[in-house]
């Protein structure tokens, strides 16, 4: 798919992988990017990127990706300026890591300390349900645009119309301390597989990337000792992946329509049991 002239929405755009993806998409010549993040930092990022490219390329929106009304406002605003949103990379995400089952130490009677259900739900809301709905709304945007243009079911001669890349993780295969995060990331695979079948009706492809440990604030928050002792030894490259390497892989997945399903960009990460 030619990315030139397409309109994209990227969530988690104020940091890490989302921010790097905005930059790569900009370099590919997309017409505009709705850059979504709850952090106000997204405005400063948009200002600096727009200055660099000399046009209003990034449109910043600050809000919570879980908020459906906010999502609708973002799409409505973009759709008043452009015909449709064609590309979605819903990268906003959080971790809330701890062991799933603990016993309180040294106190009688013994008490079970299970992973908090509230935390679990929050991780599902942000990492699983929200990315799926931003993706669905993108497919909807293309569907509405096709209807307005009186187009029927997509046919290959039209060429691919849009693309979605969900952000999975190596953790979806299981990772100590990540009961909620791993569940959410594994869940995205079901959504990807289903959307890949359904969305092509409108000419939209859907794939998922599974990054390994990438040098972003999310991973840096784990601390240098943990990164050095528990992460780097398990990678082939013996370093964290750079966000721009993941962004490049995402753009490749969007550009190359023969890519389907999942791409592992894990730098040889093999978690120990
Ligand atoms: N960094 C890694 O090693 C790694 C590996 C695999 C997958 N991922 C995934 O990549 C994606 C991006 O992660 P990152 O490492 O760049 O993290 P990051 O913490 O650098 O960036 C995440 C961004 O998402 C935003 N965000 C979080 N919750 C939000 C919400 N409710 N509404 C709006 N914005 C919200 C944050 O403000 C932040 O700017 C996430 O889905 C993460 O799970 C990261």
Throw out a few tags for this protein.
273 residues; alpha/beta; Rossmann fold; 7-stranded parallel beta sheet; two-stranded antiparallel ribbon; 8 helices; 16% strand; binds nicotinamide-adenine-dinucleotide
Summarize the structure.
The protein is an alpha/beta fold. Helices cover 42% and strands 16% of the residues. It has one domain (7-265): NAD(P)-binding Rossmann-like Domain (Rossmann fold, 3-Layer(aba) Sandwich), CATH 3.40.50.720.
Written account of the structure:
The radius of gyration is 19 Å and the shape is globular. By secondary structure, the protein is α/β, with parallel strands linked by helices. The chain is built from 8 helices and 9 strands. The protein has a single domain (7-265), classed as NAD(P)-binding Rossmann-like Domain (Rossmann fold). The mean pLDDT is 95. α1 packs across α8. It binds nicotinamide-adenine-dinucleotide (NAD). Nicotinamide-adenine-dinucleotide is lined by residues 12, 14-18, 37-39, 64-66, 91-94, 126, 167, 169, 211, 213-214, 216-219. Residues 12, 14-18, 37-39, 64-66, 91-94, 126, 167, 169, 211, 213-214, 216-219 line the site of nicotinamide-adenine-dinucleotide.
Biggest sheet strand line-up: 3-2-1-4-7-8-9
Q: List segments where confidence is low: pLDDT < 50 over at least 5 consecutive residues.
A: none
Order of helices and strands: EHEHEHEEEHEHEHHHE
Number of strands: 9
Content of β-strand: 15-25%
Mean pLDDT across every amino acid position: 95
Name the shape in a single word: globular
Counted up, domains total: 1
What CATH calls the topology is Rossmann fold
Bound compounds, each kind once, are: nicotinamide-adenine-dinucleotide
Structural class: alpha/beta
Please give the CATH class: Alpha Beta
CATH homologous superfamily identity: NAD(P)-binding Rossmann-like Domain
* Biggest sheet statistics: 7 strands, parallel
The total count of helices amounts to 8
Helix percentage range: 40-55%
Distance between the termini: 40 Å
CATH architecture: 3-Layer(aba) Sandwich
Radius of gyration: 19 Å
